[in-house]
Specification:
Structural class: mainly alpha
Strand content: 5-15%
Number of strands: 5
Radius of gyration: 25 Å
Distance between the termini: 72 Å
Order of helices and strands: HHHHHEHEEHHHEEHHHHHHH
Largest sheet: 3 strands, mixed
Shape: globular
Strand order of the largest sheet: 1-5-4
Number of domains: 1
């Protein structure tokens, strides 16, 4: 009885107040307080610890890597940007092309026009899948401290962007490869400016009014339709409508194919992904599809539609999932498991920065003096 009474105050004492997690800006400031060597150390520490977190995110990353079974170091860099050759596709109206680089004001204006409606992702990607070549490529350093830190802040562990690109590659059967290769050519204007890093696909997907020089439209119909006689540069205005309709029809099929698979890939290991093509309302339905496929991209790929069946696929998926309480529950559970994993990854990152004293600093220390030999 005395022992019980002595224990009573401890039982009645209030539980310790748990400190709320710091907001994103506070975490960014802490990161900036570290010297470069410290940042590299923090990222190495994070990568080692994050790999052993028992999260659903980690399980999916490891699963898709096992399906491909290829060392990341053996993957190529991105394809060199290319534009349609005027001498080949519009010999009657040859306008020489010249590159416009991302630091040029003209490039920035064009990029803003095409991408103003594209939401910024939480996941910073150093990997992508090229539909035209059917290759997974690395276009940035995924081990760079800034890359690791940006993703860790959002709750994404190392290799998540790599896993997403692998999943997307396994969802693609290559049916639209020729068309998508055509639309992956660089966007050019009638003055011959070629906008490095901006593609015809970006222009057409933006839905904005844009210049369509003959070399690009004819390049598409020559490549995709193998039609060389119906339209010849310079294309008279009386034939513009039929030419643009042909290019537009080719793009619709290519866009439906790529956008659906990209949206599904983004839902593979992220609970609430940011979609490019208005697939947001389908997020839980896509989680349901991943659940049904056992999280195997090869299984999910078997049920994906061609261009003609795209609308029916989305409608039938919506109706089927919404009427099945079990599927709805499984989709929500999958989404929440991924979200919980993101919280754990972010907490790990914050904990590492705390242990390194980054949150306690008010300014970045001076680097240590270099020592001579």
């Amino acid at each position: 009885m005395i022992a019980a009474l002595l224990a009573l105050p401890a039982l009645l004492s209030p539980a310790p107040v748990q400190e709320p997690p710091p907001d994103d800006e506070a975490v960014r400031r802490a990161w900036e307080m570290l010297l470069p060597d410290e940042q590299a150390e923090a990222c190495q520490w994070f990568a080692a610890e994050a790999a052993h977190l028992g999260t659903y995110q980690n399980r999916l990353v490891n699963a898709v890597k096992a399906l491909v079974d290829r060392d990341p170091g053996t993957f190529p860099g991105p394809s060199e940007p290319a534009y349609f050759d005027p001498e080949k596709h519009s010999p009657g109206q040859v306008i020489r092309r010249k590159w416009v680089e991302p630091d040029d004001r003209t490039w920035k204006r064009q990029h803003e026009r095409f991408f103003k409606a594209v939401p910024e992702r939480r996941l910073v990607c150093a990997w992508r899948y090229e539909y035209g070549t059917r290759r997974v490529v690395r276009f940035a350093d995924d081990l760079a401290p800034e890359h690791v830190a940006a993703n860790a802040l959002q709750g994404f562990g190392p290799e998540l962007d790599f896993a997403e690109a692998l999943a997307e590659s396994l969802l693609d059967d290559g049916v639209q490869q020729v068309a998508l290769a055509a639309f992956e050519h660089t966007y050019t204007d009638r003055k011959g400016r070629a906008y490095r890093g901006i593609t015809l696909y970006d222009g057409w997907a933006s839905g904005t009014e844009m210049e369509m020089p003959d070399v690009d439209t004819l390049g598409v119909v020559h490549t995709v339709l193998d039609e060389w006689r119906r339209w010849v540069a310079p294309v008279p205005s009386s034939k513009h409508d039929s030419l643009y309709a042909a290019v537009g029809e080719a793009f619709v099929g290519a866009h439906r194919h790529r956008a659906l698979r990209a949206a599904l890939a983004r839902t593979y290991a992220i609970g609430e992904p940011v979609h490019r093509d208005a697939y947001g309302p389908h997020t839980d339905r896509f989680h349901a599809l991943w659940f049904e496929a056992g999280d195997d991209p090869r299984e999910l790929a078997k049920g994906l539609p061609g261009s003609d069946g795209w609308e029916d696929f989305l409608y039938e998926t919506t109706m089927r999932v919404e009427k099945d309480a079990g599927l709805v529950g499984a989709a929500r559970e999958r989404r929440e498991l991924l979200a919980e994993g993101e919280r754990r990854v972010r907490a790990l990152w914050v904990g590492i920065l705390r242990q390194m004293g980054a949150f306690d600093r008010r300014k970045r220390p001076s680097p240590p003096p270099e020592t001579g030999r």
